[in-house]
Design goal:
Length: 180
């Protein structure tokens, strides 16, 4: 989150920054994440033919949950980017990714126009500048590429907020972006 957590915290919980929090969570992340939150949404995307995706980049890849799903659904090559070196260690041990990069999802440093798909699940809520993230995904995908963004965070379920349906951004008409 870009705003201080104190703004939302009426109980005075002890908090950590994102890097420290994910370093502590990395060993138990896979066991505590509920796949029912994001994987059914991926399965429901009819505009993406997963078997035709030759190269994907998983931005905010964490321990590799989404990378594993992509590989299991026919994606040939998957690169992963995450700001947490602890999460990347767990992802690397799974041998899912062709390449892992420790970087911000909004500034990956990867070569542009190399991916058929840029995907992110439960990561952009930690970014201060969404515009930079969208600029980075647009830079990374090929002209016919797609962006799949799932940030339907569990907190939103508790607040009763429905997922956002598919939209086409006004500034980029060449390629549909899928927002969930």
């Amino acid at each position: 989150m870009s705003a201080s957590f104190a703004r939302y915290d009426s109980r005075g919980y002890r908090t950590r920054d994102v890097a420290a929090g994910y370093a502590a969570w990395a060993p138990s992340y896979d066991a505590t994440m509920d796949d029912r939150l994001d994987l059914p949404l991926l399965r429901s995307l009819v505009s993406v033919d997963w078997g035709r995706i030759a190269a994907a980049v998983d931005l905010g890849c964490g321990t590799g949950r989404i990378g594993a799903w992509l590989k299991a659904h026919g994606v040939t090559r998957v690169d992963g980017v995450d700001a947490s070196s602890a999460m990347l260690e767990w992802a690397g041990a799974k041998r899912i990714y062709d390449r892992l990069v420790c970087a911000d999802a909004a500034a990956s440093g990867l070569v542009g126009r190399c991916y058929d798909l840029a995907i992110s699940s439960f990561a952009v809520c930690h970014l201060a500048d969404l515009g930079s993230f969208y600029t980075e995904t647009a830079r990374l995908i090929r002209p016919s590429g797609k962006v799949a963004l799932i940030d339907y965070h569990p907190f939103m379920l508790l607040k009763g907020c429905p997922p956002i349906s598919m939209r086409r951004p006004a500034s980029r008409s060449r390629s549909p972006t899928l927002f969930i």
